[in-house]
Predict the structure.
Amino acid sequence: MKNLKRFLSVLCLSVLALNATLMAQNDTLVSNDTVIIEETKYGILNINTVPKKADVYVDTVYMGQTPLTIKEMAAGEHIITLEKVDYFSKTKTALIVEGWELTVNESLNSIIEFMNNHFDQGVVCYQEGNYDKALEHFHEAIVHGHVESHTYIADCYHYGNGVEQIYEEAVKWYQKGAELGSAVSQRNLGYCYAEGCGVEHSHEKAVEWYQKAADQNDADAQYAMANYYYNGIVVAQDYALAAKYYALAAESEHVEAQYYLGLCYQNGYGVKKNDKKALSLFMNAAEMGYPDAQNTIGMFYLDAENEKDNFVKAVEWFSKASEQGNKESQYQLGNCYFAGVGVDTNYVTAINYYLMAAEQQHDDAQYKLGKCYYEGKGVETSYVNAVKWFTEAAQHSNNDAQYLLGSCYYKGQGVEKSYEEAVNWFRQSAEGGNAQAQNSLGFCYENGQGVEVDVDKAFAWYSKSAESGDAIGQCNVAQYYYRGAGVSRDYVKAVEWFSKSAEQGNVDAQFALATCYEFGVGVEQNYVIAANLYRMAADQGDAESQCVLGNCYQNGQGIQQSYELAAVWFRKAAEQGHAKAQCLLGYCYQVGQGVDKNLEEAIEWYKKAARQDDAHALGRLRELGVW
């Protein structure tokens, strides 16, 4: 009410002043010789602003900063302009009345608040998918110098949100934002250069902009710089600097940086090796949902002590990573279900996980899936499907798949038989270090299958296989030394390689080595060792070894004589169709040695041996007047 009364009073005075002015214009006294100068009339002008210290201009003349009082302000109308950095300027008209005091109170609007408000609204619209409205807000904010709005406009062009996708236009906006100091724009510009997206590819330029953003503590840029130093791209490889930048990014909860910093501690790259620290970082990243870290934790539990609880935990972490599409975890889950590790064995579920990983080009999963079809585990046997997946894996340089694919071509399983194609895949696998393929390639050279016969190359590949630890390859090398084929005969070396192979359970090597001990070839004669080796081979079902072991029992050579056990081993070999064993078993029945005498049974076994042209059996039958 008080302000209203004051306003009315000022209004009345203004009207009186106006009337007086009009009367003065009509009645001005001017003589030809005299000029009358009227006395200037003043009022008081107070100016206050929020915030304070705004510059005050009256009729374009600078008068000072608020709060400001002008005690002698000429009566009349004046233009007042208020200005302050980062605030919108404001202009008002003030009417000063003689003898009166006028107070002007103004609030200045913040430019920063204005553009931030537009930016915030733009972000909300962007997140809601209202890109047109978002762009309006961002452009309005940019008019007043908002930096980060450049980044969002660039993103719109980069992803085609609300505008046509134009990478070159995105780069222009990133460039503007980057030059104004936006760390996000600097980082995104670095990415564009790194990927050649909208600009010519240049790792040098990428590093330049990533570094600027990293210096502003942008975690993604720090992570990018770490990767450059880790891999030695453009910059000299420096694990210490890589670890430094990974650590900086990790402090900002950058999950990938935590994982790779863990790898640095695990391997001692740029930092002192610390498995405990590495595990802690892996666990942090895993709990934040990073699939590679979850897989790593799964592997940690899988490789831990053989306790069921650890295997169960491994499956839990593999499952979490698998749900996010991590192909390594999908492959590991396939292995767990296939072998019953941490879960019940389930070939069907194993195949499902192998398939998930295989479709993401995981070559080991493709190989395992091929083996499932090849062996009929969890699915119906299908050599065609086996070849399909072996081929996929083989084309990814999986040596095991290359070997089995070669085997399929060699045997004509699921594909037309082709020794040439078999040799092709055996060679690729062999050159990749697969010992079985090296042996198979040697066999092809030895027998001229898919290649011309070349004993030297055969021995060379057998040797590579043997040195790689393949039992069959070791046995083949031993045979070459034993026979002196393609190499100087050397019984001692033959025994050496037979021994290596026999220790791995190779039946042929066990039998051959037993023969060497029996006859003292390349080694001191020892019937006991010979009999023991024959038993090893016999226990694996080798008919020849079973027959010879029967002879050892029959003659008490290297072992306590036992006709009963002799008959047992003759029978085992005879039932496998071994002609000599059939004849010897027939003799046991004829004379009642180790078994009850039974002429009819003897004749039956003699006949079986005779049908295989066994001369001794034929002779026995003639003696009995049967044949």
Observations:
- Strands lie at 42-50, 55-58, 61-65, 68-74, 76-83, 90-96, 101-107.
- Residues 1-37 have pLDDT under 50 and may be disordered.
- Residues 150 and 177 are 5 Å apart (CA to CA).
- The radius of gyration is 48 Å.
